[in-house]
Amino acid sequence: MKTLIIIAHPNENSFNYAISEEVQSHLKNKNHELKIKDLYKEGFDPILKEDNYLQFYQNNVPKDIHEEQKLITWAENLVFIFPTWWNGMPAMLKGYLDRVFTNGFAFQFSKGKVEGLLAGKNVVIFQTTSQTEDFMKPNQLVSSMETTIDLGFLNYCGFNVMTHKFFYSVPQVDQETREKMLGEVRGVVDIM
């Protein structure tokens, strides 16, 4: 299996990186061919400029974005790893999605309907948050993010979302709890 891991966290000592390392180790043991896209470390430019939008609309995609699209095309599975900031994804990741998953590559309109062009690809999402589950779920913050990310973006582009796993209270939990969370990561990627 060909798996692309996309991580969006600026701190290499973060729990997001621990998740990424766990995913990489486990999938290597399952003989997955892996590629890693570390948006902050690579200095990805997340800014969608007006002329970029016009280029996308005219199917004249910039070379750097074409390279990103080749990675997405290569992958059978995608794993997104990111923190929750202000009840959403980091701006870096949102900019990546805006620039890479373009009309004509990720989706297209035909006869008044949208067609996801990335069907047949599976996605797993690991999302961390400092908030408690008891705060997030009753206030519908989890369901709103799942709707926006899973339905409004991934399903729209044709992806099969296998799991969207939230890890709660990450900065406050002890090492034993973090180890249990990493065990959950292994369980999730076992389905890939």
UniProtKB/TrEMBL annotation:
InterPro entries: Flavodoxin_fold, Flavoprotein-like_sf, NAD(P)H_dehydrogenase_qn. One of its GO terms (molecular function) is NAD(P)H dehydrogenase (quinone) activity. Keywords: Oxidoreductase. Residues 1-184 form the Flavodoxin-like fold domain. SUPFAM superfamilies: Flavoproteins. GO terms for cellular component: cytosol. It comes from the Bacteria. This is Flavodoxin-like fold domain-containing protein.
